[in-house]
Structures are given as structure tokens and as C-alpha cells.
């Protein structure tokens, strides 16, 4: 493993950081999350058309840049520093890789170039609150999380005209504004029970019921910078992702692979947020005075900040390794990196609120934005102990009462 970044990777980081410093400060973030989309469309257009972020890890044959998970992680780290709300995670990290891995050639040719250009955004819809299970991060995704033949979840029924979907999905990232839905649904009944992925294309109406039978409602979430939606499907016409010849593809395995790379990207994003809030806290303790001297000069404060710095740097190393490893084909590394990064962000953001004193508790200060991102991400993608527990189970670390060799 080469631990140094290339000149191109450093340029991606530098260019994106300069852009976000100009156009995505705390006030811009608060304004963007109040829009109907939940993000700034003009900024998204710049990120997509000028920097090519949605197609960064897609092949050039589909209008992408042809980079790897590492470049996608570096961009997410910068987006995490500013908490920039955007559909990049839902579209480029979750949706596009599934299309690339499972879609038919016609589906890839029709949809991936539009995703690469930023014209089309996508969202992965899984039943209930099963996102981390579906992605194989906190449990075995070969279970009945999509419905299992019981009431609830999302059910798929094949008809003469194609497929019809029924059910509900909660906590769908950017689901209220996405132009394309990738829906995980249970099919086959009890005899041939399995989970497949389906495409639901337009017409889709935001925050209401469209002619396609889809009801999408944006939810009030703890972290406003991470938009979520509830999606209800009532006899919705859908298209199988892939073709009939690919019906025997290991969908669960593909989902787990995408989940591993997504965890590495999310880990880098959390590291970016933790690094930024720590940086802002250090700046503040150098300025705030108590007993006639800056509070940053007190030994107790120095020790707390030093501990945070070590934790953030350790999480950064784990995130970078996970991004490289998933790109190199190594499995089951993203979840552990994500656990470490989420823990670092939670501790750093909570310490930032404390060290900012009374102002840190106010809505006007940006510290609470990072604290809510930490809490919200752990609710969505964790908790941390579940991520570590599943990684340990998968590696059989404690099988038979002994540590595996």
C-alpha cells in the first residue's frame, strides 16, 4: 500500500476545499436545508458539471471519470468538513454502484451517463429502518429484512405487464427529491423467497402522490443536512434491475460489497467533519479568556484537545486504509473504519460543544450542526458497537470461545 496521495488526488482535495469555503459556510448550509430539495441545486450543478463528482468512480464508458473509491472518499471528506448537503451519498455511493453491478447493459447505458452528469439523482429504498442490515454492516443481509413473506416491508409481484410493488420504505436518503428509486423488495412468496432490486422511474412527485402510485414525504430528521424521506408504494409499476438471465445473481453479496465501500466513504466524511470541528474549537480556545488568560493555555484543556487530535488522526488512518482496501478488493474493512470514525466524530463534536461554553449550546453556533451530524449518522449507520460486533462475528474472532488464528 502506498500511503501517499497522487498529485491528481491532492488537486481534487484542494479544488473542492476552496470551492466549499467560498460557497458552503454555516449560513449557506442552513439556507440550503430549508429548500425543497434539501440542498443547493446551483452548488450541486457545479459539483457535478465542473468537478464531475457524481461520476468520479464510474467508468469513462458511462461518462464517468474512472477513479476509485479513494477519490470518492477524499471528496466526501471535504464535503464532511463543511457538512455540505448534497445527493452525492445517495446517488454516487449507493445508487450508481448498484446500477453498475446489477443493471442490464440497456439500463446502464440509459441511466449512468445521466447520473455522471448530475442530471439524474438516485436513492436506495429499503423497507423500514433496515439500511445498515441491507448493506451488510450490522447484520447478515441474507435474512428477511425486505419482508420475508410477512406483512410489512416491500413486496414485489410479477404480472403479465411486468412487476408491481407494494409496501413502505423509511429513512430513504434524499428519497423525496431523487429522480430514480432503487427499491429492495421481497418476491417469490414462501417457496422461492428472495430479495431483488427494482427500478422505479418517473413520474415522481415530491412530497405527495404521483401518477406512478408513489407517495414521498420528506421527514423531519435530527440532522437536517442529511435529508430522509418515507416512501409508500401502492401498486407501483417497476422494472427489475438487471434482466431475467441475471435472476440468479447474488444480490445480497452485491449489496454487502456496496455497503463496505459506502462505509469507507462515510468514514472519510465523518473524519472530515471531526477534523473541522476540532480545528474550530482550537481556534476558539485561543481567543476565549478566563482569569486573564486564554483558556487554551490551561493544561487540562490542552490534554483534552490532544486526546481528540489523536483520536481524529487514528480515525483518518483507518478511513484512508478502508478506502484503499475496498478499491483493492479486500472485504469487510469499511465497517470497522466507519465505527472508529463515527466514534471520533461523536466525541469530538460533544467536546466542542462543551469547550465553546454557553455559545456552543445555541442554535446560532455551528457546533451543534456537527453534534447532530454525529448523532444522526450513528442512528442511520450504527450504532458503533453493532458495527464492531458484526465485524467480529464475520471474522470469527470469538468463535468457539477462542480467538481465531
List the helices and strands and how they pair.
Blueprint: H1 7-23, H2 26-33, H3 41-50, H4 69-82, H5 88-102, H6 105-117, E1 122-125, H7 131-134, E2 154-159, E3 162-173, E4 180-187, E5 194-200, E6 208-209, E7 214-218, E8 228-240, H8 251-287, E9 289-290, E10 293-294, H9 299-327, H10 334-355, H11 367-381, H12 384-394
Parallel strand pairs: 1-4
Antiparallel strand pairs: 2-3, 3-8, 4-5, 5-8, 6-7, 7-8, 9-10
Helix pairs in contact: 1-4, 4-8, 5-6, 5-8, 8-9, 8-10, 8-11, 9-10, 10-11, 10-12
Describe this structure in words.
The protein is α+β, with helices and mostly antiparallel strands and 405 residues long. The protein is built from twelve helices and ten strands. Strands 1, 2, 3, 4, 5, 6, 7 and 8 form an eight-stranded mixed sheet that branches. A two-stranded antiparallel ribbon has the order 9-10. The mean pLDDT is 90.
Throw out a few tags for this protein.
405 residues; alpha+beta; eight-stranded mixed sheet; 12 helices; 15% strand; globular
Brief rundown of the structure:
By secondary structure, this protein is an alpha+beta fold.
Structural class: alpha+beta
Order of helices and strands: HHHHHHEHEEEEEEEHEEHHHH
Spans of at least 5 consecutive residues with low confidence: none
Largest sheet: 8 strands, mixed
Amino acid at each position: 500500500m502506498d500511503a501517499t496521495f497522487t498529485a491528481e488526488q491532492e488537486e481534487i482535495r484542494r479544488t473542492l476545499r476552496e470551492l466549499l469555503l467560498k460557497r458552503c459556510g454555516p449560513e449557506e448550509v442552513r439556507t440550503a436545508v430549508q429548500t425543497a430539495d434539501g440542498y443547493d441545486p446551483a452548488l450541486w450543478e457545479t459539483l457535478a458539471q465542473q468537478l464531475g463528482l457524481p461520476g468520479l468512480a464510474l467508468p469513462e464508458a458511462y461518462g464517468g471519470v474512472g477513479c476509485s473509491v479513494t477519490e470518492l472518499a477524499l471528496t466526501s471528506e471535504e464535503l464532511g468538513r463543511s457538512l455540505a448537503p448534497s445527493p452525492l451519498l445517495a446517488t454516487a455511493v449507493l445508487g450508481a454502484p448498484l446500477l453498475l453491478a446489477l443493471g442490464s447493459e440497456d439500463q446502464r447505458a440509459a441511466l449512468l451517463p445521466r447520473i455522471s452528469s448530475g442530471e439524474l439523482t438516485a436513492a436506495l429504498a429499503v423497507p423500514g429502518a433496515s439500511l445498515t442490515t441491507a448493506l451488510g454492516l450490522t447484520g447478515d443481509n441474507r435474512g428477511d429484512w425486505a419482508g420475508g413473506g410477512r406483512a410489512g416491508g416491500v413486496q414485489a409481484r410479477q404480472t403479465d405487464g411486468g412487476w408491481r410493488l407494494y409496501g413502505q420504505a423509511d429513512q430513504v436518503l434524499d428519497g423525496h427529491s431523487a429522480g430514480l428509486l432503487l427499491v429492495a423488495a421481497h418476491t417469490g412468496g414462501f417457496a422461492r423467497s428472495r430479495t431483488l432490486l427494482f427500478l422505479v422511474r418517473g413520474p415522481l412527485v415530491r412530497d405527495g402522490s404521483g401518477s406512478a402510485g408513489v407517495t414521498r414525504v420528506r421527514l423531519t430528521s435530527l440532522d437536517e443536512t442529511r435529508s430522509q424521506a418515507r416512501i409508500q408504494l401502492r401498486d407501483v409499476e417497476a422494472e427489475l434491475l438487471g434482466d431475467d438471465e441475471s435472476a440468479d445473481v447474488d444480490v445480497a453479496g452485491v449489496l454487502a460489497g456496496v455497503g463496505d465501500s459506502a462505509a469507507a466513504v462515510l468514514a472519510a466524511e465523518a473524519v472530515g467533519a471531526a477534523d473541522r470541528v476540532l480545528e474550530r474549537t482550537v481556534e476558539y480556545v485561543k481567543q476565549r479568556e478566563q482569569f486573564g488568560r486564554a483558556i487554551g493555555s490551561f493544561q487540562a484543556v490542552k490534554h483534552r484537545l490532544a486526546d481528540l487530535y489523536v483520536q481524529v488522526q487514528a480515525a483518518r488512518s483507518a478511513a484512508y486504509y478502508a478506502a484503499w482496501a475496498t478499491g483493492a478488493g479486500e472485504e469487510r474493512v469499511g465497517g470497522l473504519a466507519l465505527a472508529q470514525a463515527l466514534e471520533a466524530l461523536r466525541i469530538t463534536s460533544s467536546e466542542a460543544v462543551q469547550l465553546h461554553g454557553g455559545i456552543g449550546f445555541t442554535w446560532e453556533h455551528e457546533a451543534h450542526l456537527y453534534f447532530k451530524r454525529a448523532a444522526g449518522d450513528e442512528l442511520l449507520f450504527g450504532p458503533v458497537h453493532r458495527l464492531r460486533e458484526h465485524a467480529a462475528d464475520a471474522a470469527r474472532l470469538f468463535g468457539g470461545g477462542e480467538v481465531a488464528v
